[in-house]
Design goal:
This protein has about 500 residues and is mainly β. Helix content is about 10%, strand content about 55%.
């Protein structure tokens, strides 16, 4: 019963009540896998105590103070999101590839002191540009046989007790995204005298399949300010405008492939969801260099405050053995709301080994249970309660190293994010391995990085307190390739 639940509950919301904001959405936009320059990514993102890289505007802006010259950087990338699924013993796999800009930025540096031994602030930096915070690109196929129940059983349970005319004439109302299209495609029938319902699939025995395609990203416009006090203390802050573009298309199918169910052949449900949001946050950070060989960093990120809007719709169609075909579309849904994602705290430590190399580590704390939905006409009491009870504190670790040989640098990194779910609801822990190489001359540099990430999560097609379905066990992997072109002047 420990997996009943949160993911089960989410699947039910999507299947039964049309699209609405839920705990899964809050987590999607609270978990970050920041993508910036190739050097940053190759070292696992462990840059909080190092600085001197444009990506620090989205992590520790105190690292801006390290700059002693101006810079322009640009990072194109390729992301491949792959999935391997097992559902009731059946395997499925697929992937989706996209091209993107992981980073583009400009840093202006002004020298404040004419003598290096003069006390006081020595440099001032101003930076602006974009960093990618997350990728949502993936295509997942989940398919297998189910001999116990059907998605339509959840419709029957939901409909029982509702007067059939309230469903039949309800396209623009409460049932417009679920019971109404099911009724008009003859996937839901009733004993009208008792307001009890039944479906054409009485006892399971069907093949179920879902194709889930997701794409989009989270990015952040950043405007940062930094300074350097006597090459000992480096300070910085950034004002950030993150934005979200998330798109989801899914096809759910149930079919009587063995032809054992009288008169029923198959049905399809096509769902579409689009989410757009723009927000604001601030980040503050520092790097302390008590000795040449050590650097200590810290940063705090305020919550991100988003204005969001969702758009969604559903289309259902059914096929019967006698040749009958029915279809019905839902109305087009749209809703505005607000989302606040959690505060983040970071601490970091780096050891500089002369001119030969460095080792750097970073820790990040974030409490996913603190995310909140708000709206002017809806309280979100149940949804926010689900967030607070279903998620735990996040402890994210990063480790990176770099070694130099002449104009070349060789890099490697590791990152780990613990499972965000409470009480063993799901797995969801993320592990990342990275590596790369760089070439640097006086006025320009080129860096290349590869990052592999992996996590395992269960996905439930549907479910209620009385109707349980086995999860699809999904292994989700990402392959990121990026190259950074940079010039200093």
């Amino acid at each position: 019963m420990k997996k009943y639940i949160f993911t089960l509950f989410i699947a039910t919301l999507v299947s039964i009540q049309g699209y609405s904001q839920n705990a899964d959405d809050a987590l999607r936009y609270s978990q970050l896998f920041t993508g910036g320059t190739a050097r940053y990514m190759a070292m696992g993102g462990a840059f909080g105590a190092l600085g001197g890289d444009f990506t620090v505007l989205s992590t520790n802006p105190g690292g801006l103070g390290i700059y002693k010259s101006s810079e322009f950087t640009f990072t194109p990338s390729v992301h491949v999101g792959s999935s391997n699924s097992i559902y009731n013993g059946y395997a499925g796999s697929d992937s989706r590839t996209n091209f993107a800009v992981a980073n583009a930025g400009y840093v202006y540096t002004k020298r404040l002191s004419s003598r290096s031994n003069q006390p006081g602030f020595r440099h001032f930096q101003f930076a602006m540009g974009i960093n990618r915070l997350n990728d949502f690109n993936r295509r997942t196929i989940m398919a297998g046989d189910n001999t116990e129940n059907s998605l339509l059983d959840t419709y029957v349970q939901y409909a029982d007790g509702i007067y059939y005319k309230d469903i039949e004439n309800n396209r623009g109302g409460l049932y417009g995204f679920d019971l109404y299209p099911a009724w008009w495609t003859y996937l839901l029938d009733a004993d009208t005298s008792a307001s009890t319902y039944f479906s054409p699939i009485p006892n399971g025995g069907i093949q179920q399949r879902k194709i889930l395609e997701q794409w989009g990203s989270m990015n952040e416009w950043s405007f940062g300010f930094g300074t350097n006090y006597q090459d000992i203390l480096y300070l910085g802050m950034s004002l950030n405008i993150p934005w979200i573009r998330y798109f989801e298309r899914s096809t759910y199918n149930e079919a009587d492939i063995a032809d054992t169910i009288y008169d029923f052949n198959s049905f399809n449900i096509y769902d579409r969801l689009e989410t757009r949001g723009t927000g604001f946050n601030m980040k503050f950070g520092f790097i302390l260099r008590p000795a040449d060989f050590i650097r200590i960093g810290g940063a705090v990120h305020t919550p991100s405050w988003y204005n969001m809007r969702d758009y969604w719709d559903r289309y259902m169609e059914s096929y019967f053995d006698n040749g009958d075909y029915y279809s019905q579309a839902s109305p087009y849904g749209s809703y505005r709301y607000k989302l606040t994602t959690p505060l983040r705290l970071q601490g970091s430590l780096a050891f500089i080994i002369g001119k030969h190399g460095l080792i750097s580590g970073e820790y990040e704390y974030v409490d996913y249970s603190n995310a909140k939905f708000r709206s002017y006409d809806y309280g979100y009491f149940n949804e926010n309660n689900d967030i607070s009870t279903s998620y735990v504190k996040g402890h994210n670790y990063k480790l990176g190293t770099e070694w130099r040989s002449g104009a070349f640098s060789f890099r490697a990194g590791y990152a780990y994010q613990n499972s965000p779910y409470s009480s063993g609801i799901n797995d969801g822990a993320l592990t990342a391995y990275s590596g790369g190489i760089g070439y640097k001359e006086k006025f320009y540099y080129i860096d290349f990085a590869y990052v592999f990430t992996r996590k395992v999560e269960d996905y439930y097609f549907y479910g209620t307190e009385n109707i349980n379905v086995n999860p699809a066990e999904n292994e989700l992997t990402d392959h990121r390739f990026m190259i950074t072109f940079g010039t200093r002047f």
